[in-house]
Design a protein that fits this description.
alpha+beta, Aminopeptidase, eight-stranded mixed sheet
């Protein structure tokens, strides 16, 4: 996949991206919103193997660049009758600038253009910033699972699930 809009590039992750992915995933500040305030303690080799395994399982990992610099990642994969997505702006200084909304809009446009008719995603119930963006784009809540998983520190987390259909999509490009 390759999506270009102004200074944004969304592209397939490649082997050269393994080191930056490893850095991001091990950074507690980046991973705290996902329930991993100490990162996930992975290695370059494990991330390389994960990328290879994801491709075998029809999961596609993408790198988000802004002004030619990697700032985050996305993924998508088939799930039941839908396509499930994930997004993370990993460079802390690039968060809260409206980039996530633009990036998600571009990504969703492309997925619907590719023929997918339903997009789903989930986030931590406490991640209100992400929920605001999702709902602004037209995603609708369809489930909340309370205390659905336990983080490495032993704290329980609840998950909120969203879905989006083409007719509900509200394009939000700035």
């Amino acid at each position: 996949m390759k999506i270009i809009y102004q200074d944004i590039l969304i592209r397939d992750a490649k082997e050269k991206d393994v080191s930056i992915l490893t850095q991001w995933w091990n950074d507690g500040k980046v991973m705290a919103h996902a329930g991993f305030p100490n990162g996930i303690n992975t290695t370059i080799q494990k991330v390389k193997e994960q990328l290879q395994e994801e491709l075998k399982n029809y999961k596609q990992r993408l790198i988000i660049e802004y002004k030619h610099q990697p700032i985050g990642e996305m993924c998508f994969f088939p799930f039941d009758d839908a396509i499930e997505i994930g997004i993370k702006i990993c460079e802390i200084n690039m968060q809260n600038h409206g980039l996530g909304q633009n990036i998600l809009t571009l990504f969703i446009q492309e997925l619907f253009h590719m023929g997918y008719s339903k997009i789903i995603l989930s986030t931590d119930l406490n991640n209100l910033r992400a929920q605001h963006v999702y709902e602004k784009l037209g995603f609708k809540k369809y489930d909340i699972q309370y205390n659905s998983w336990q983080d490495p520190q032993g704290d329980m987390h609840s998950t909120i699930f969203y879905e989006l259909f083409p007719q509900n999509f509200i394009q939000q490009l700035k």
